[in-house]
Amino acid sequence: MMPHRSEKQKMLAGELYVASDPELQHDMAQCAQWVARYNSGNASLPERLGAVGENACIRPPFHCDYGYNIFLGRNVFLNFNCIVLDVVPVRIGDGTQIGPGVQILAADHPRDPELREKMLESGRPVTIGRNVWIGGGAIILPGITIGDHAIIGAGSIVTRDVPSGVTVAGNPARPLHLR
User: Fold this and answer.
1) pTM for this entry
2) Best CA proximity match to 167, nearest among 143, 149, 144
3) Backbone angles phi, psi at 118, to 5 degrees
């Protein structure tokens, strides 16, 4: 017989979970308090995030769900108004630069309407490689991997993995053939 798993354990494993669970609500409330302090200049990134590399910088305002699932490499930069829905790990590699208003969405919802009706959610990890440049207003969907040295054009919606060294743009984001 399988041991009982908490909603938080299910969430962290990328399984269906109930976000209104008291433990998760408590974690989100703690994160909201940290976000408010961070955005007012009274908190540091290492207080809440899973890992923060040397010289990593997030310009406020910044918003996230839990914080502890965000892992920043060295010299990572996120500009103003970024949102990270971090129900599962979001990893951002060394030297990556992220423009203003970018949304990184690891949170997901079932496609089956009966499961959505039960208020179930899930997550799929997002991994962004080293030396990636993500233009302002881009949206990175759940489960996406962006390879090292890739470029994501401003306003793009990334619905598929992006290989290393490739430039994509548009909705949905598609490879550009640059000269």
Assistant:
1) 0.96
2) 149
3) -85, 5
The whole-angstrom separation of Cα 96 and Cα 34 is 24
| CATH code of 168's domain | 2.160.10.10
Task: Read off the pLDDT of residues 87-146 as tens digits, 9 standing for 90 and up.
Answer: 999 999 999 999 999 999 999 999 999 999 999 999 999 999 999 999 999 999 999 999
Compute CA distances 133 → 93, 95, 115, 141, 165, whole Å.
Answer: 11, 9, 36, 16, 11
Q: Which pair of structure tokens corresponds to residue 130?
A: 């080293």
d(CA 121, CA 109): 5
Range of the domain at 57: 7-175
Q: Which two tokens stand for residue 5?
A: 């798993």
Residues 39, 119: Cα–Cα separation, whole Å: 30
Residue 4 annotated among the catalytic residues of the structure: no
Neighbours of 47 (CB within 10 A): 11
Total domains in the chain come to 1
Q: Which of 26, 109, 149, 177 is catalytic?
A: 109
